């Protein structure tokens, strides 16, 4: 079973359009869609926004549906300057920029007995790069940082860039990474840029959420053909 996860309904809907839906199952006040794509058995869900919701859904996808791989598709704010609205990025690793135990001498993002960075699956990233090459699509690779905040300030964005070396920002990848790492399930984090995570980002997000979600969904489907 392969899990496909999103944060928002707008991110999941364009993926569902490509699939043969079999059944929906409810767990913990959320819907899980069982579907087929070619010969692949899929379970899909949108978690709702944020790290707690994302961690809950990722754990359910693994524990209840026995997902052996988890692929995330959605949108993100750009940190790196050459990322423009609609561009695709895959994470090399994810982290949580809003964890702060620095008063105890720990580095930003670190929790004792855990890690700052969660490594994405190299095989899935390799497939993504192969698909991008074949289709002539520009695909960036970099660190994606997550936190329970919609970032809309140049200052905050620059702090996240400097502290974590992040190329993009969203609100779920670090949580999904943490769950998958602890569960030893390979994960893949794909995002299309919806905004520049600085002043005005809220307006751009509203305007480009659907379009960028579709870009990410379409690429994910191309990847599924290679899995
Ligand atoms: N997801 C998309 N854009 C974002 C932003 N600017 N901050 C946090 N999450 C996002």
What this model shows, in words?
The chain has a single domain, classed as Rossmann fold (3-Layer(aba) Sandwich), CATH 3.40.50.1580. 36% of the residues lie in helices and 31% in strands. The longest helix is centred in the C-terminal third of the chain and has 24 residues. The protein is globular. The protein has a 5-stranded mixed barrel with strand order 5-9-8-6-10, surrounded by 5 helices. The model has no long low-confidence stretch (mean pLDDT 98). The chain has 227 residues and is α/β, with parallel strands linked by helices. Bound molecules: adenine. Adenine binds next to strand 5, strand 9, strand 10 and helix 6.
Task: For the structure shown, list the relevant keywords.
alpha/beta; Rossmann fold; binds adenine; 227 residues
Instruction: Summarize the amount of helix as a percent range.
Output: 25-40%
CATH topology: Rossmann fold
Major sheet:
5 strands, mixed, barrel
What letter string, H or E per element, gives the SSE order? Answer: EHEEEHEEEHEHEHEH
Coarse morphology: globular
Ligands present: adenine
Whole-Å distance between the termini? 12 Å
* CATH architecture label name: 3-Layer(aba) Sandwich
Mean pLDDT: 98
Q: Kindly report the spatial arrangement of strands forming the biggest sheet.
A: 5-9-8-6-10
| Beta-strand residue fraction | 25-35%
Protein structure class: alpha/beta
Give the radius of gyration. 16 Å
Query: How many structural domains are formed by the residues?
Result: 1
Q: Unreliable runs, pLDDT <50, ≥5 residues?
A: none
């Amino acid at each position: 079973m392969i899990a496909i996860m999103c944060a928002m309904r707008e991110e999941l809907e364009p993926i569902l359009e490509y699939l043969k839906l079999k059944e929906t199952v409810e767990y913990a006040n959320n819907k899980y869609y069982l579907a087929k794509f070619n010969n692949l058995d899929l379970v899909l869900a949108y978690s709702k926004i944020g790290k707690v919701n994302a961690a809950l859904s990722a754990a359910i996808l693994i524990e209840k549906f026995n997902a052996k791989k988890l692929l995330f598709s959605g949108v993100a704010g750009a940190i790196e300057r050459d990322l423009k609205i609609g561009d695709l990025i895959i994470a090399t690793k994810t982290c949580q920029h809003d964890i702060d135990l620095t008063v105890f001498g720990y580095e930003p993002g670190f929790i004792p007995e855990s890690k700052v960075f969660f490594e994405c699956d190299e095989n899935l990233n390799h497939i993504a790069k192969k698909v991008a090459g074949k289709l002539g699509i520009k695909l960036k690779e970099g660190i994606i940082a997550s936190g329970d905040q919609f970032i809309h300030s140049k200052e905050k964005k620059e702090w996240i860039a400097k502290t974590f070396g992040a190329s993009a920002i969203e609100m779920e990848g670090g949580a999904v990474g943490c769950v998958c790492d602890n569960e030893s399930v390979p994960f893949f984090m794909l995002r299309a840029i919806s905004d520049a995570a600085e002043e005005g980002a809220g307006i751009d997000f509203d305007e480009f959420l659907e379009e960028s979600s579709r870009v990410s969904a379409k690429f994910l489907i191309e990847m599924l053909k290679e899995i």
